[in-house]
Structures are given as C-alpha cells and as structure tokens.
Amino acid sequence: MIKFSRLVVIASAFAGLAGFASSASADAAAGKATFTAVCSECHEVADFEGEDAAALQGTLKNIVAGTQKHKKALKLTDAQIADVAAYMASGK
Questions:
Q1: What is the DSSP string of the chain?
Q2: What's the whole-model pTM score?
C-alpha cells in the first residue's frame, strides 16, 4: 500500500510540472487573438490582470470540459487554453 501512495504522489508531481511547463511556454500574443475572438464579447482582459495564469488555465479547462458553468460552451485546445490564460493574466 505504501508503494501505491508514493506512486500517486509522484504522478501528481509530474502532472503539476506538466501544467507549469505548458503555462511557461504559452504565447500571450496568440492568446490575445483567441481571447478577442472568443471571450471579449463578455469579458475584458483587464479584469484578469495579476491573476495566476495556472489558475486561469484550470478554470478554462473546466469550462471547456463542461464541468464549470459558463454562459456559452467553449471549444479550445490545450495550447489555446494556455495561451489565453497567459494573455488574461497579463491584463494587456
């Protein structure tokens, strides 16, 4: 049983690092284009300035997955989600 617990901890750590890596390589300029096309009808980017990009990415993933309530369904790839989250966090 202890070995299984270690495996879960290690797997969680790798998942966290994978999420960090995708956030770190995000393209805010591409995120701006996607945000403008998909989100700007209802949201202003300045409202998200200073927010944690990883947290925003998690929220966007939940919206895309349909597990978080949102005005309309979103269809974005993981790369687009990372880009939009980076742009939103920049607030610019």
A1: -HHHHHHHHHHHHHHHHHHHHHHHT--HHHHHHHHHHHTTTT--GGGGTT--HHHHHHHHHHHHHT-S--SS-----HHHHHHHHHHHHHT-
A2: 0.72
